[in-house]
Fold:
Amino acid sequence: MKIYIMRHGETKWNKRSKLQGQVDIPLAPKGIEQAQMTAEGMKEIPFDHIFSSPLKRAYKTAQIVRMDRPIEIVRDDRLKEMSFGRSEGKCIGKIMENPAMTRYQRFRLDPEHFRPAKYGEYFQDVLRRTDEFFKEEIVPLEGKAENVLIVAHGCVVRSFILNLTGRSLGQFWKTPFGKNCSSVAFEYKNGEINMIYENKLYYDTDCPDWQQQIPSYKKEYRK
Structure:
């Protein structure tokens, strides 16, 4: 079984470098275009199941990529973006320029010791819920499905990458994955996970690693 996990298309807040978190921001016109090009690139993949974050930007991306496939998109709260609590809606640049605002600096540079704003999540919280989602929703599909699509958010997809490769939290940002509508793919077979590729885009960009193949990471997920 192959599992494709992708980030949603661009929003206005992405363009303005605002922390979105779980604020329900819709796709921008450019994000819709990115999703349409991604749909064209993935049109030959016969998806059996599609899962999505319930937030508009991810669910709309999933709808576009689904095209005319007669598949229900299953929304799951565990696929929501990491919550930044009271920091949501703030401009990342202003946070980084303020020496008193060390939270986001730790977020980028030291995720293991990051402390969220009030009502926000730790990285460990997102790792736990994505791991739970995979074990409860994806593992049981082995032998019943061949291709599964998951549409979520940047921190959520990176959490899947860490969970499925066994990398440490300190490596959270050390991956080429990240652009809107980027995807990562894994193969799950006989309880073992293999990475097929880590960062693929279906539209032109200045990202040089868009088709990087990294098949060396393995991890077992037993039923």
The mean pLDDT is 88. The first helix runs from residue 12 to 15.
